[in-house]
Amino acid sequence: MSAGDGKAPLTVGIAGLGTVGSGTLRALAANAEALALRCGRPIRVVAVSARDRGKDRGLDLSGCRWLDDPLALAADPEVEVVVELIGGSDGPAKALVEAALQAGKPVVTANKALLAHHGTALAQLAEAKGVGLCYEAAVAGGIPVIGLLRDGLAGNRVQRVAGILNGTCNYILTTMRESGREFADVLAEAQALGYAEADPSFDIDGVDAAHKLAILTALAFGCAVDFEAVRVEGIRDIAALDIGFAEELGLRIKLLGVATAEAEGVAQRVEPVMVPLGNPLAAVEGVFNAVLAKGDFVGTIMAEGAGAGERPTASAVVADLAAIARGYRRPVFGVPAAALTRARPVPAEGQIGAYYLRLMVIDRPGVIAEVAAALRDEEISVEALLQRGRAPGEIVPVVITTHETTEGRMRRAVARIDALEACLESPRLIRIEGE
Amino acid sequence: MSAGDGKAPLTVGIAGLGTVGSGTLRALAANAEALALRCGRPIRVVAVSARDRGKDRGLDLSGCRWLDDPLALAADPEVEVVVELIGGSDGPAKALVEAALQAGKPVVTANKALLAHHGTALAQLAEAKGVGLCYEAAVAGGIPVIGLLRDGLAGNRVQRVAGILNGTCNYILTTMRESGREFADVLAEAQALGYAEADPSFDIDGVDAAHKLAILTALAFGCAVDFEAVRVEGIRDIAALDIGFAEELGLRIKLLGVATAEAEGVAQRVEPVMVPLGNPLAAVEGVFNAVLAKGDFVGTIMAEGAGAGERPTASAVVADLAAIARGYRRPVFGVPAAALTRARPVPAEGQIGAYYLRLMVIDRPGVIAEVAAALRDEEISVEALLQRGRAPGEIVPVVITTHETTEGRMRRAVARIDALEACLESPRLIRIEGE
């Protein structure tokens, strides 16, 4: 039996031939026969559009038409599915996705910014037109986490999603830990190696991870995408000193995106967090990504793999095309777009967590007592206190870990400690994740 | 908007109300509204069948009919989908699945033994009748690894699948490592705690893991299910001594199921293996399961979670029901059953691996030279040699790790070493997995 014999191919138009677009063409070519068998019909790219026609991408484009205007893909009668790999939350990417859906064509996109900002509206449009909007490649690259949440955990009420969603940050934090070097130094090296962009702020300030978290949150909890509600803090302020203390405490600093369903609403945060070594996220190192989900029946599951790169991301784009070729139709964010509720963001004040607090204080009698009093007055209970070395009259780091408390209490205590005369730098506060 | 309003429910009949059956009923009840939203229609259990009608399972069965004969579910005109949770590779489970498919009803099953022995024939029957045969719950419990391979990696040529597929074995090995105790002792405790069966051989001799691996192999490589081709070795012979040496070497002993696509065919093995700490499988401890897959585009990805238990396994059963309710149809083993090729099993002789070899030898001059000569004559290169303690004239353990060689060479060298006068016990040989 040969592959998808006689069945009409699924015809695809691809906009954007950067890393992911090129990888997608390569994957479709390399595994064409297997895909036709798996889908019951071949998948054929009939048209492409990109900025520079002359550029040598090492691709054989002889089988497909070149369109200078990506929007033409939406109107092209030969194109059944549009793959948007242009990027950017607005502009041509948004125009193309809207036009394609409007024309009744399913869309596959890797564009996290677009979905984070316009996901709910686009889902409504896709469902009104009765076509799919697929975005496996938008979150965690090759890890099929969208399918895992939407299909694999369909029988669960998801309570929590947590992920290492940005490979650049994870690479920097891993390298800092392994080498003992400071952030700026490691960032410069990552830029030289091509692991970080010339303008790295999108990654290191947590924006990219926040885009992805907003998408995961909508899917996990069936609520409207709400990027504005994500509290974001990046990794610029992480010091080698804190990474060293974390190691001593059996913790590892990770930039985590965490979304939790709580009684009052949904909390979404991207921030550096200390993860205990017993938590599987702690073992995810270097450029790898991972997503952990907790459901009321499945318990905790985690998937890890390559979160970016030409070939892994292409794998995710092709998975979406295969599902479309097989005729699989699901609501964009797991439940019908009309049923996506607007979740109330949970105020930071009341969020529960254990904390790591690092102070730079003058080593003299009474300082620890003052610090302890500030914590006691907020009913924060200390788990451990570490002072490294003794140097009477000099500045020493003091590290305190606490049991669970509210963020409001913790911030009030920290403000009081910050005001102490013996406290010479702003205290460093990092939340500690559970096992 | 309310859940699946007005849409006809998907009607389900469940055979078997043990742990998984009870969990499935509980999951469908607990998350009924979310499921109806996600699937566009409610999922309703209309009939059940189990051995003991009088038993109190803590379930409300008032909404569904009780059938004494599970086979009656296949014939019941009100039942659209049959869920088989009876278990066993033959007998009533097989009869029911065949009858349901024959009647044109999709089947959901958690029965790995059934699929390992009759998977190809059942897939042919299901596809001939144009209905689905779903088995997410048959492998790795709650981890949606079937969906991950079939949908998530659809764009890949899979080269390798490796998994910790039996929670009982992983629990025993983890406890042995943490406590330093011997196998028999830890097994007895696991039995007392209910983590191991009264007759544990199905788990500890690797049969259960081999059933699951045979299924994963078919799905990953698009070949016919071939349980007979799985080489199986269990964990009865693992000694605390070897677990200790592994720890010293930065390795951890796991019962792994590994399937690889090679030039000559497909190799399937279930055996205790030493896994380097840098391999994510090494960090999967206790009763947890994990599956790692390597594809030509996605690279290496791993999913981990609860591999058994009422609620996780129910989560997987419900995921299959949700896919059926949404109308998703895929070939049972990824490609049409008619296209499943009979893969040639790769002979053990030629399989490549690095090895751990532990000898009990008399501590006297010349012994190591004799051992080294046996290895050299088979062109096996030694990576490390460890002798713990010195005790002239007494028995001491000697550990050797090798670089990659063929299993044939290694076994010939071991036979020669075993025959040495100074070698007082049969050498212990364990393969070392890559990073």
From TrEMBL, chains A, B:
Membrane-spanning ranges: none
EC numbers, comma separated: 1.1.1.3
CDD domains: ACT_HSDH-Hom
Domain ACT: 356-431
Record organism: Tistlia consotensis USBA 355
Key word Cytoplasm present: no
Pathways involved: Amino-acid biosynthesis; L-methionine biosynthesis via de novo pathway; L-homoserine from L-aspartate: step 3/3; Amino-acid biosynthesis; L-threonine biosynthesis; L-threonine from L-aspartate: step 3/5
Organism ancestry: Bacteria, Pseudomonadati, Pseudomonadota, Alphaproteobacteria, Rhodospirillales
Taxonomy, superkingdom: Bacteria
Name the UniProt record assigns to this protein: Homoserine dehydrogenase
